[in-house]
């Protein structure tokens, strides 16, 4: 491992020689590390199996003398996975304290500054091109976010989940201490991605629900005038969902009427210009989940969920951020196309990625 310390902005004082000043700074040196967070199209994280540790690791390692963390990350990808690429976007910078990593006392671990870079979302072609380095990397695997604490060390799992949330939030690199953000976002506070999600994805179809296929649930992409949509976060599990609900057992109300009623009851939201998008087909039973788009005109006080007695956290996110929070996987592409077609018809502009916003107070648009 190499050591590094930042140069001082001011020259050494007259009472301290250059040699003494250099020795003082060297005594406070830390390790410098780098890593790369890569996901597949299902949102699973690429981890490496190595023979020298029982837990999984992100691709990465120590920064060499005189090497920048970004160049070190690209070098490690080449050495460990046989992949040539550049990394330009940081997700997190973690201060790992001497007590924050389990090491042998003989190592005399001084602490580390570890950079986490965004390696992007890899398709099947890029994944197939991976060539793990013999003798160092036993293999690679893609792991569900909720399963990271089971296969990584506690600090490493915290760091990766924090970096994943920072990627979704889009506010720039998160500053961490032992894997936890020093300024948590709402995604960190609620703990999104920590709960196991469905292992199978329901395909989306831009077509009417077939006759004879019952509607199990109705949901809406509710747009604000700035092009973002309303997402509900479960405070107990961190699970994200679009507002909506379940039709009454008797099926007296049509799906659109059910949607308007349930959105008002569970999110105190009022809609306008409702448009049908398509449906998700359940794999375990012959039922459909009908999806709509609409303009969100007002939001009242956050209601208590009658089923749980808890209040959902309401946030605004771009449609792309919503898909990452909803964890729809590859099938989300077709649904996103339908969502944006409806957005255009509603006369709502496209929103670039920005930090998600929590809605605490009643609002009218």
UniProtKB/TrEMBL annotation:
The domain of life is: Bacteria
Q: Which UniProt keywords apply?
A: Hydrolase, Magnesium
The signal peptide, as residue positions, is none
Q: Name one Pfam family in it.
A: NUDIX
Q: Transmembrane region positions?
A: none
Using the record's annotation, list all stretches that form the Nudix hydrolase domain. Answer: 29-165
* Single GO MF annotation: hydrolase activity
Per its UniProt record, the required cofactor names are: Mg(2+)
Q: Which InterPro entries match?
A: NUDIX_hydrolase-like_dom_sf, NUDIX_hydrolase_CS, NUDIX_hydrolase_dom
Q: What is this protein called?
A: NUDIX domain-containing protein
Record organism: Streptomyces alkaliphilus
